[in-house]
Amino acid sequence: MNARAVAGLLLLAGLGAVLSGLPDEDAPGDALGSSASAAAPDTPSGAADSCLPCHAAVVEEWRASMHSQAFLDPQVRAPDQADDFRKTECLPCHAPLPVFMYGIEPDTRVVERIERRHEGVDCLACHGLPDRSVAATRPGLQAACRPVLREDLGSQALCAPCHNQHGTHDEWRASPAFAEGRTCIDCHMPRVLREGQEAGAPRSGRSHRTFGGRDREFALEGLAVEHERTSDGLLVRLVNRFAAHNLPTDSRNRALDLVVTLFDARGAELPHADAAPRHPGGERGTARLRFRNPYRASGDPSTQLPAGQTGSLLVPLPPEAASARIELLYKLQPWIDDSLAHWSLEQQVDLR
């Protein structure tokens, strides 16, 4: 038996072991249990390791993505969010069974798995099929994992069961991108060239890095911060010029803060003149504007920036104002200090 045949048998055995842990198609959903205990960090991977022999580059991209950290991310497990997954309603999207097992039709809910939760949104979450084959975007493939063409694997419908829990899919449907035929995959999974030993190489594929709001350069591609001096002061605008959904979207903890700080000719910061007290984490700066979808219980309105729209902040300029600093801060929690923002963008403006 040659080396390729041996590798194929090992791959089939490994993938079969992973798939055998999936419930029967007729099993009731409540038979899955709701234990939130994570596997030990040194527990061998299941789905990812099974895919590694043929898809090494894809697996490495996935490991660098937030999908792979969906169950382990400290931000997700924090008390104000999943609370170490005591909030069991968070489990389905952070350690899901294959979405194809329960369908990707509108309003379909994903179901959590009880094994290998430490792998988060793993390969099978998107590729696993009820008959224990795997979904592919190309026809006629021959491999140990029995790939089957599923054209909807490359559609936005695949993302909706998880990413519409906070309305992102609905936001996309209301955006200019929807009318243009641009989908989640087009932006978040850009095309890459598969080379070397990658299955089917050389060929075009999609990056499984799944770039998102935490990736600074990716996020800033869809934004523009503009300013102009007017008779009323310094007008600063944040333009959602490219993102196909509201900003920030998904988690209600995320916040985008537009901060303008004025300085006098000596470089001393000018105090703000806000009548109302500022929220925790928003004390700094002469003027501020926050973009966020707050928790429903707060009763506060959403200040998200929809796709294609502009948010404006007008800052009156006192005679002593000589310069300004404009900052855009992306925060994973809204109340943290500005210095702890996940990423930032800064512009300096001479007002003289």
Integer-rounded radius of gyration: 24 Å
SSE run: HHHHHHEEHHHHEEHEEEEEEE
Strands, total number: 11
Domain count, please report it.
Answer: 2
Q: In percent, how helical is the residue content?
A: 10-25%
List low-confidence stretches: 1-14, 23-45
Beta-strand portion reads: 15-25%
Shape: elongated
Mean pLDDT: 87
Spatial gap, N to C terminus = 79 Å
The largest β sheet comes out as: 4 strands, antiparallel
Strand line-up of the largest beta sheet:
8-7-10-11
The number of helices is 11
- The SS-based structural class is alpha+beta
Description:
The N terminus is likely disordered. The strands form 4 sheets. Strands 8-7-10-11 form a 4-stranded antiparallel beta sheet, with no helix packed on it. About 20% of the residues lie in helices and about 20% in strands. A hairpin with a 2-residue loop joins strand 5 and strand 6. It starts with a helix and ends with a strand. It folds into 2 domains: about 160 residues, no CATH class; about 140 residues, Immunoglobulin-like (Sandwich), CATH 2.60.40. It is α+β, with helices and mostly antiparallel strands and about 350 residues long.
Comma- or semicolon-separated keywords:
11 helices; three-stranded antiparallel beta sheet; 2 domains; alpha+beta; Immunoglobulin-like; about 350 residues
